Amino acid sequence: AKETGRDNYAFFTERMDMDVRAKLAIQTQLRGAVARGEFAVHYQPQMCLRTGAMLGAEALLRWDNPVLGRVAPSLFIPLAEEYGLITAIGEWVLDTVCAQIQRWHAAGLGEIKVAVNLSGNQFAQDRTVEFVEATLRKYGIAALCLGIEITESTVMGDPDKAVAALKRLKDIGVGISLDDFGTGYSSLGYLKRFPIDVLKIDKSFVDDVATSTNDAAIALSVISLAHNLNMRVIAEGVETREQMAFLREHGCDEMQGYFFSRPLAADAFTALLGEKKNL
Ligand code: C2E
Ligand code: CA
Ligand code: CA
Ligand code: CA
């Protein structure tokens, strides 16, 4: 709980302290950034800890603006939400990812599942589920190739609506991961109500998993909780061999992190897929 409090506090002050002019500059530049082609999707491998094979990737948005340079998603995504731009950006991400999956299939490059992060505002829109279905149809790809990552805050705004939308996505075969698990306030309540396939252990618990008995205990609890609920577990932010070994030894299903690979631009990720490199 201490961890959560500190994180939220840091996030809040970061937002409050952000120079008003910097905010304004981001707002100005964000408008039209999709049309100007300033966004790219990078892909970070998600690796099976049992076989070492790549099972999937997380799609992570990158923004390179001529005036501002590269702006971190943790800065611009909350502002895109605030300015009502996140739906357009999120739809661009979904379209870009599905187009990329189609290209990988056409090139015979395996059956990986790509998980896209969804924002709350985007999720509250009735058309999001329809947009996902339409995009899968547009590129002729199976829903099994697509996953979405949500956080508690994604669904907090209108939980009933979120449950309905998630059930529809799950029904068509889109996988649902609960991101940053353990950092929020009522994770267990969400686990009961939402049709979740995967729990992602937050990086803050992974960092010291091999050296702190408390963090190890939390990781082990999340792993058994997930397995008891018939969910899979992905550990995020794995940076060292020790962290990976611990997680593997204790039955964590998948890992993602700099230890294997940073998020990669589409071309570099395509090359990695071609190498069929294992963990
Ligand atoms: P997240 O969903 O928790 O994504 C994981 C973040 O951890 C990413 O930061 C990733 O680059 C970083 N990461 C992965 N492995 C490691 C590691 O081993 N060490 C360290 N230090 N970091 C690692 P990134 O790409 O800056 O994204 C930050 C957040 O922005 C994401 O957190 C997600 O909440 C949001 N985001 C990114 N792309 C999108 C998007 O397309 N849509 C929405 N709505 N949110 C996005
Ligand atoms: Ca995520
Ligand atoms: Ca995460
Ligand atoms: Ca996280």
UniProtKB/TrEMBL annotation:
Residues 23-277 form the EAL domain. It comes from the Bacteria. This is EAL domain-containing protein. The lineage of its organism: Bacteria, Pseudomonadati, Pseudomonadota, Betaproteobacteria, Burkholderiales.
